[in-house]
């Protein structure tokens, strides 16, 4: 039966030994018994027992030395740098990897130098135009000097928080409410960044500011609705301006293209008219000598060519008047429609070198005019 089971009180190893109760053995007695056993291992008393006792002490010291050496190994992760202190004073900085330090002499503080840390600050602040706004900003930074980060100030996190809060309040205090809430937010963020760097520079905390985020800026709740309307109106204004600019960018190239096309068409028409006029002048210059040599023949030929050109583009109706005065129906409406759909042909010819316009008449005309007139041709008179 076990001594701690019911009814096993008499089996307690610490009681009823030698007729009296006793507690747990004393540690001094345990060590004395242990060293006594080491002494007996020599087989006798005297010098041999003392040598065996010294061997046991050396063995214990050797174990302690091994434990001390093993306890000195440590590892610095890839994203960290180690700050080594020797008797509490800065000694050196170690790189990542497996390292060893003398325990109780050196101590190592690992510092993360790759992770990006956040530090936020918020509060109600008074602007330059004496309005109250609530601003929330967040700073992102990274440690670049582990020693300065650890020992430049007593509490680097608190120092960063206070510096950020001071920079925000300074910039907001020198800005108007509209700039902080609307279109001046980016400028405010940049100014806070610059002011924070100026504040941290004398402390040399060993940090690098990566970014500054303007998380929120809003007016007091009592006037929030009015400011929301004002912001919406400004956003609408910017949207209309962008739409107008986009429309202008779309219309302007099209208008420029049309203007260029019209200029090119006008230039082409100008060249066409000039070439046609030059051709007419050249033709009449060739015609003038022939007219001077044979006026009647030339007049008849021009008359026939002109009539041929006119009748080739008009409708013709042949009426037989020799077989009686029969009434016949002429489709005047269709003839007029066809005439209206056909562009009128107008031939205007002049002869350079002639002082009077040429009048083209019938070969049997008795007019002895030195020139030719196109009006007679155009009316079809003989």
Tell me what you see in this structure.
- This protein has 382 residues and is an alpha+beta fold.
- Among the domains are: 27-71; 73-112, no CATH class; 117-219, Tetrahydropterin Synthase, Chain A (2-Layer Sandwich), CATH 3.30.479.30; 294-314 and 346-382, no CATH class.
- It has helices spanning 27-40, 47-71, 146-151, 156-173, 177-181, 185-200, 224-293, 295-311, 332-341, 374-379, and strands spanning 73-76, 80-86, 89-94, 97-100, 106-112, 117-126, 132-143, 207-218.
- Strand 6 and strand 7 form a beta hairpin.
- The longest helix is centred in the last third of the chain and has 70 residues, at 224-293.
- It is elongated, with a radius of gyration of 59 Å.
- It starts with 26 loop residues before the first helix and ends with a helix.
- Residues 1-23, 339-382 are annotated as: Disordered.
- Belongs to the band 7/mec-2 family. HflK subfamily.
- Keywords: Hydrolase, Membrane, Protease, Transmembrane, Transmembrane helix.
